[in-house]
Write a structure and sequence with these properties.
Blueprint: E1 5-10, E2 16-21, H1 29-40, H2 45-64, H3 69-74, H4 81-90, H5 100-103, H6 113-120, H7 132-154, H8 159-177, H9 197-207, H10 219-235, H11 239-244, E3 256-259, E4 281-284, H12 287-301, H13 324-337, H14 347-364, H15 369-380, H16 389-392, H17 394-408, H18 410-418
Antiparallel strand pairs: 1-2, 3-4
Helix pairs in contact: 1-2, 2-4, 2-7, 7-8, 10-12, 10-14
Domain Tyr recombinase: 190-406
Family: Belongs to the 'phage' integrase family.
Keywords: DNA integration, DNA recombination, DNA-binding
């Protein structure tokens, strides 16, 4: 079976591109053509890579049943119902080895495709399901690609063959798209929430550089990781925004920093670029936090010679700009150091926690709902009419709901007491 994998490529001008490749072979031409339309539309590199991963899955599944997609279409025929049903079934499950990045995650900017091959031979057969939203996205991208490729190949056929292929394609894709599941919006009991005040204090106590429970040994790493947690809690920024921060984004005379979108920045040498998803914005910090950040830059970070050539603030102890996988590893180690938390601690939980604290402060200040919403959107880089706040304030909203519901029960409670 051909081992199709999605690979990220970084060009010298900073542009990132994903290609579908068989190890030690050339990229799949028709996939490169298809992905180029997303690049021309300015879609995010991570979005393009997800599409590439989806097409890696498609080609893997077709290869298992010896289906040569281009040859089939060139003969004037589309995929059959059983073949499409097989694809619809395959999109339900994880396939980690589709991604060449996973083979050498966090190790190097050079992909070792041999690791992909070895991983496929590891003997792991357990299939883990993906969420419904991922299934739906995979099916949509597969259908769009098959439609694109059918028209692309069909343009080389005779008029009668082209009409026949088009009719066959449209009927087949209508049935295939019927498999796209609806993404449920009601199941929110297990939705991600922020930390409570007590849980947040516990995490800060453990991550403090002087804490005996701090899970890291080296002084630089202890201080840097403490700053990472503090900055995430203080600003509510995403991990990509934090890792994209450059020294030039700090105001030298005021306690302020700028969060700026820098897609395909040439000065960012990471193959997987950490980037900002929301609007550019300026955030003000408390002077004590800003002083500690400048102290880290001018002392601990400056002591690493290689880091002086890197514009990003958050670097490894070897001087390279830190990767998103390193942030994931940091919080995995922090989860071990803080057992028993009711939520699975990740960098994004810090964002939820900031939003909970923001809601509490807005309530204490007596802000109206409209003012609070506009203030939150400005701080988080969302548009004025964004509805994202509902996603990040579940804990606070649930608490207010419980308070109101219990208030409604007071009269009934008093009546039950009188009936005793």
């Amino acid at each position: 079976m051909a081992e199709y994998v999605a690979m990220r490529v970084r060009f010298q001008n900073g542009e990132r591109l994903s290609v579908l490749q068989v190890p030690y072979g050339l990229p799949v031409h028709e996939v490169t053509l298809y992905l180029d339309k997303y690049r021309r539309k300015g879609r995010a590199a991570n979005t393009i890579h997800f599409v590439c991963l989806t097409l890696a899955l498609l080609y893997r599944e077709l290869d298992k049943t010896k289906v040569a997609l281009l040859g089939r279409l060139a003969a004037g025929h589309f995929l059959t119902a059983p073949e499409l049903n097989r694809l619809a079934s395959a999109v339900q499950y994880r396939m980690d080895d589709l991604d060449a990045d996973e083979a050498d995650k966090g190790k190097s900017n050079v992909i070792n495709l041999l690791r992909v091959r070895l991983r496929r031979k590891s003997g792991e057969t357990e299939r883990e399901a993906v969420d419904v939203a991922t299934q739906a996205s995979r099916l949509r991208y597969m259908a769009d690609f098959l439609n694109f490729l059918s028209d692309y190949v069909g343009s080389t056929l005779s008029q009668s063959e082209r009409r026949s292929l088009k009719a066959e394609k449209e009927d087949a894709l209508t049935a295939f798209r019927a498999n796209i599941p609806k993404v449920p919006k009601r199941a929110k009991l297990n939705a991600r929430v922020g930390l409570s005040e007590e849980e947040m204090e516990r995490v800060l106590a453990v991550v403090h550089p002087a804490s005996p429970n701090n899970p890291w040994e080296r002084g630089f790493v202890r201080l840097r990781n403490w700053l990472i947690v503090v900055l995430l809690l203080a600003t509510g920024m995403r991990r990509g925004e934090l890792l994209g921060l450059q020294i030039g984004d700090l105001n030298p005379s005021q306690p302020k920093l700028r969060i700026i979108r820098r897609a395909d920045a040439a000065e960012d040498l990471r193959r997987i670029q950490a980037n900002t998803k929301t609007n550019d914005r300026e955030i003000e910090l408390r002077p004590a936090i800003m002083r500690r950040l400048w102290s880290f830059i001018n002392t601990e970070r400056r002591a690493i010679k290689a880091a002086r050539k890197v514009p990003q603030i958050i670097v490894s102890d070897e001087g390279d700009a830190l990767s998103e996988s390193s942030i994931d590893k940091l919080f995995a180690q922090l989860r071990t150091a803080c057992p028993g938390l009711p939520v699975r601690l990740t960098s994004h939980v810090m964002r939820h926690t900031w939003n909970d604290r923001f809601s509490e402060q807005a309530e204490a200040l007596g802000l109206t709902d409209t003012v609070e919403e506009k203030a939150r959107n400005a701080q988080q880089g969302w548009s004025d009419n964004s509805a994202m706040a509902a996603t990040y304030t579940r804990r606070h909203t649930a608490r207010k709901g419980r308070e109101v519901a219990l208030k409604l029960q007071e009269r009934l409670d008093e009546k039950l007491k009188q009936d005793k």
